[in-house]
C-alpha cells in the first residue's frame, strides 16, 4: 500500500516513514508537516492511505481530512495522534475517517493500516471506550448534536458525506426494533442490559444482533457502534 505520512514534527514523520518502509507491503511515498501538505500531497499522489496527526500549525488534521473527503469520499484517512479529546474523536468519526490511533505502540500501526485496507475501521482501545462513553452520555442528556471542534472548517456542496446521513437512511435495512438495539449497543449496553431496557429476552437480543450484523455487513458489536457513530451522529 502507498502511504503518505503527515506530522507537525518532521522527525516523527521521517521516523514513521522509515519504520513502515521495513514492512514488505507498505511503501511510504511522501511526508509532510502541515494540514495543507496533506491536502496537496493527497491530490498529487492519490495514496492508498493517509496517516496524519491532528494538531498541526495552520490547517489542522481534521480540517484537512474534511477538505480531502469532500473531493475524494473514498479516501482512507487514519489519524495517529497523542490527543484522545472527545471533540476530536466525534468529529473524526463523523467525517468518515477510517482510523483513530494513539501514539503509544508503534508496532500496532502497520497491522492497523492493513485492517483499513481490508475495509475495516480501526479505533485504538481507549478511543473506542471514550466514544462509547460519550454516546451514552449524549443519550442520557438527550443531546442529539455531536460536539464541534473549535477550529472552523470549510463547508462544501455536492454529494452528502457520512456525517450528513439521517438515522433512517443509514439504518434503512433494519426494523425499528433492530434500530433500537443498534442505539443500545452504541451506548455501551451489554445484551442483558439491552434486554432489560427494551423488555426483551437475552436470546431475542442475540438474534437481533445477528440479524443486524448480516443486514449491515458487519462482523461484531464494535463495528455496530462504529457504524452508528459514523453514519447516525
Topology:
Layout: E1 2-6, H1 10-21, E2 27-32, H2 35-45, E3 49-52, H3 61-71, E4 77-81, H4 86-95, E5 99-102, H5 109-117, E6 122-123, H6 125-141, H7 167-170, H8 176-186, H9 191-198, H10 202-216, H11 221-232
Parallel strand pairs: 1-2, 1-3, 3-4, 4-5, 5-6
Describe the structure.
This protein has 233 residues and is of the alpha/beta class. The protein has two domains: 2-133, 3-Layer(aba) Sandwich (Rossmann fold); 165-232, Winged helix-like DNA-binding domain superfamily/Winged helix DNA-binding domain (Arc Repressor Mutant, subunit A, Orthogonal Bundle). It has eleven helices and six strands. Helix 3 links the parallel strand 3 and strand 4 (77-81). Helix 2 packs parallel to helix 3. The longest helix has 17 residues, at 125-141. 41% of the residues are buried.
Counted beta strands: 6
Radius of gyration: 18 Å
Q: SS-based structural class? A: alpha/beta
Global morphology: elongated
Query: Can you tell me the CATH superfamily of the largest domain?
Result: Response regulator
Our estimate of the beta-strand percent is 5-15%
Q: What average pLDDT do the residues reach?
A: 79
- Uncertain spans, ≥5 residues at pLDDT below 50? 141-166
The number of domains: 2
What is the CATH domain class of the largest domain? Alpha Beta
Task: Enter the CATH topology name of the largest domain.
Answer: Rossmann fold
> Could you spell the SSE succession in H and E letters?
EHEHEHEHEHEHHHHHH
Quick one: biggest sheet? 6 strands, parallel
Instruction: Output the number of helix runs.
Output: 11
Amino acid at each position: 500500500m502507498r502511504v503518505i505520512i503527515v506530522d507537525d514534527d518532521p522527525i516523527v514523520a521521517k521516523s514513521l516513514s522509515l519504520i513502515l518502509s521495513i514492512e514488505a507491503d507498505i511503501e511510504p511515498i511522501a511526508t509532510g508537516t502541515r494540514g495543507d501538505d496533506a491536502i496537496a500531497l493527497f491530490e498529487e499522489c492519490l495514496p492508498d492511505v493517509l496517516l496524519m496527526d491532528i494538531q498541526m500549525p495552520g490547517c489542522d488534521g481534521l480540517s484537512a481530512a474534511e477538505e480531502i473527503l469532500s473531493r475524494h469520499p473514498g479516501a482512507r484517512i487514519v489519524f495517529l495522534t497523542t490527543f484522545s479529546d472527545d471533540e476530536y474523536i466525534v468529529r473524526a468519526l463523523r467525517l468518515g475517517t477510517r482510523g483513530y490511533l494513539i501514539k503509544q505502540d508503534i508496532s500496532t500501526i502497520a497491522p492497523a493500516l492493513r485492517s483499513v485496507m481490508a475495509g475495516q475501521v480501526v479505533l485504538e482501545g481507549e478511543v473506542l471506550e471514550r466514544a462509547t462513553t460519550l454516546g451514552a452520555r449524549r443519550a442520557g442528556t438527550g443531546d442529539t448534536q455531536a460536539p464541534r471542534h473549535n477550529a472552523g472548517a470549510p463547508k462544501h456542496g455536492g454529494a452528502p458525506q457520512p456525517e450528513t446521513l439521517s438515522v433512517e437512511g443509514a439504518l434503512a435495512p433494519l426494523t425499528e426494533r433492530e434500530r433500537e438495539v443498534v442505539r443500545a449497543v452504541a451506548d455501551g449496553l451489554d445484551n442483558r442490559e439491552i434486554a432489560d431496557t427494551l423488555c426483551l429476552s437475552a436470546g431475542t437480543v442475540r438474534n437481533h444482533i445477528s440479524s443486524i450484523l448480516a443486514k449491515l455487513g458487519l462482523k461484531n458489536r464494535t463495528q455496530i457502534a462504529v457504524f452508528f457513530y459514523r453514519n447516525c451522529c
